[in-house]
Amino acid sequence: MSAAPAQLTDTERRAQKVQRLTQELNLTPEQQKQLDTIMISVQAQYKAIHQSTDPQINETRQKGREQIRAILTPEQKPKFEEFLKRLDEERKRNAQQ
How far apart are CA 8 and CA 96, in angstroms? Predict the structure, then answer.
């Protein structure tokens, strides 16, 4: 079993993308700088979108979970909570990537 891959920062991920596109498209140094600037802007826009919609998504997720809990038997509820715990941990790991 191999260790989990190290988490890359936004800067590291962006640098990898710039490097990959540089190789595939044979970008000039000036194009590389421009691409990096574009990618910084796009990342900032993505973060702004997530910040504005995350509360709505979380509220909807919680409402759905409450509806599911309402139909479960007492025996099923602990299993569902354990499932949610794993799901939330996975979501948290993915958000950090």
Answer: 9
Chain centroid offset of residue 47 CA? 10
Q: What residue ranges of the chain have pLDDT lower than 50?
A: 1-4
Query: Which tokens in the block code for residue 3?
Result: 């260790």
Q: How far apart are CA 43 and CA 49, in angstroms?
A: 10
Residue 11, token pair as written in the block: 């800067």
Q: DSSP letter string over 11-69?
A: HHHHHHHHHHHHHHHT--HHHHHHHHHHHHHHHHHHHHHHHHHHHHHHHHHHHHHHHHH
